[in-house]
Amino acid sequence: MPQLADIFETDVYGFDYSGQFPVMATPLVQSLKRAYTPTYVLYMSIFVIVLLGYSIGTTAVIDLAASHPEGVVGVVLVAPFTSGLRLLGNQPKKEKTPFFDRFNSCDKVSKINVPVLICHGARDTVIPSEHSVELHDKLKKPVTPLIVHGADHQSILNGAYPQTFCRIHRLVIT
């Protein structure tokens, strides 16, 4: 997180999932929303807020952004996936998401009402970029996505591909 603050010359407020299992997804999202509200009220009401999620963290950011929190002006999703079961079954285009899929970004992303930038590595074998394409097609306010040729799941945010940070910075300053 300190690197992001330095790169964007801004303050960064970071959070992390305390667990990543489907049975815990609902309590985690609720606790994330509870954490966001007082933080916003106490510290961030004077700041421009752009939410950024990476990999499994994109599900938390999508859940939060879909609830239309005050002060959020943009969302960045790096290596997102459509849903947990779609990812496990290698079916990003599956028509319906089972009701018990706790990581269901595909059905929630259309509720986000601020600009959303999606970044994905073309060589990502953990989460194929087709998931990003599917999510992008469902956005209300899509920003032209960034598919980084040569980048994989880990390298897209490790500094090896500065175009990722340039595009995120462009969203932050607009």
TrEMBL record:
The chain crosses the membrane at residues 40-65, 71-89. It holds the Pfam family BD-FAE. GO terms for cellular component: endosome membrane; plasma membrane. The keyword Disulfide bond does not apply. InterPro entries: AB_hydrolase_fold, BD-FAE-like_dom. Residues 86-139 form the BD-FAE-like domain. Keywords: Membrane, Transmembrane, Transmembrane helix. It comes from the Eukaryota. GO terms for molecular function: palmitoyl-(protein) hydrolase activity. This is BD-FAE-like domain-containing protein. It comes from Heligmosomoides polygyrus.
